[in-house]
Amino acid sequence: MPVTTKYPEPGVAVITVDEPPVNALPVRGWFDIAHEVTAAGQDTACHVVVLRAEGRGFNAGVDIKEIQRDSGYDKLVGANRGCAAAFSAVYDCPVPVIAAVRGFCLGGGIGLVGNADVVVAADDATFGLPEVDRGALGAATHLARLVPQHLMRALYYTASTIDAHQLHHHGSVYQVVPPDRLDEAALALAHRIAAKDTRVIRAAKHAINGIDPQQVHRSYRYEQGFTFELNLTGASDEARRRFVDEGKGA
């Protein structure tokens, strides 16, 4: 399975994504993340979740080639719904979710990280939304939770990336460590949280979400509406076709 859950120590659920070669997830993968995160949060023995990935990077977004192979729009709709489900599962998880990020974190990866409670990153981690180059919109909602408003806009319009040290400067990455220490650092933080009274921590998560100034569910679905408009105009098809053709030549 591309998404699995293990309990390396009491109270700590580690959810691992492994979808070679770059963790660009098909529709099924997004719903798998939603299922595993939701199941962990509903388990009273779970006090904290660590979301991590194997392979070359944390997440490369949706599997655009899967969408292009579909003669209709089922995979596009599925990817949009799957991303919304996965992002919501992280945000709504009754216990804190720690994102452990290494390598690239792109597109849908920003949605996962932006909705996480704490981000620990390897010093090789980079974050960005290439959506405008793919003829889509989305996850500005989540990028805006990582960087200030005007920087978010610049990164979004240019499809540029920002590194872990820069995000640490802005306060959205809690800790930056060498890649070979990432899992250790994420588990150490998880251990500290898991040692607290889970009744209090669960209440704290609920309370913090309740005072969040950004309504992440509604704003993300609002963004997705423009993706569907771009598909109707043909702009998205052209952008995805260029992306797939460039990949074939690589």
The CATH architecture term is Alpha-Beta Complex
CATH topology: 2-enoyl-CoA Hydratase, Chain A, domain 1
Helix content: 40-55%
The CATH homologous superfamily is named: 2-enoyl-CoA Hydratase, Chain A, domain 1
Largest sheet: 6 strands, mixed
Return the structural class: alpha/beta
Bin the strand percentage.
Answer: 15-25%
SSE topology sketch:
Elements: E1 3-9, E2 12-17, H1 27-42, E3 48-53, H2 64-69, H3 74-92, E4 97-101, E5 104-106, H4 108-115, E6 118-122, E7 126-128, H5 140-143, H6 149-158, E8 161-163, H7 164-170, E9 175-177, H8 182-194, H9 198-210, H10 216-233, H11 235-249
Family: Belongs to the enoyl-CoA hydratase/isomerase family.
Organism: Amycolatopsis minnesotensis
InterPro entries: ClpP/crotonase-like_dom_sf, Enoyl-CoA_hydra/iso
Protein model, in words:
Keywords: Lipid metabolism, Lyase. Pfam families: ECH_1. This is Enoyl-CoA hydratase family protein. Belongs to the enoyl-CoA hydratase/isomerase family. InterPro entries: ClpP/crotonase-like_dom_sf (IPR029045), Enoyl-CoA_hydra/iso (IPR001753). The structure is a single chain. The protein is built from eleven helices and nine strands. Helix 1 links the parallel strand 2 and strand 3. The mean pLDDT is 95. The chain has 250 residues and is of the alpha/beta class. Helix 3 packs antiparallel against helix 10. The strands form two sheets. Strands 1-2-3-4-6-9 form a six-stranded mixed sheet, with helices on both faces. The protein is globular. It has a single domain, classed as Alpha-Beta Complex (2-enoyl-CoA Hydratase, Chain A, domain 1), CATH 3.90.226. The relative contact order is 0.14.
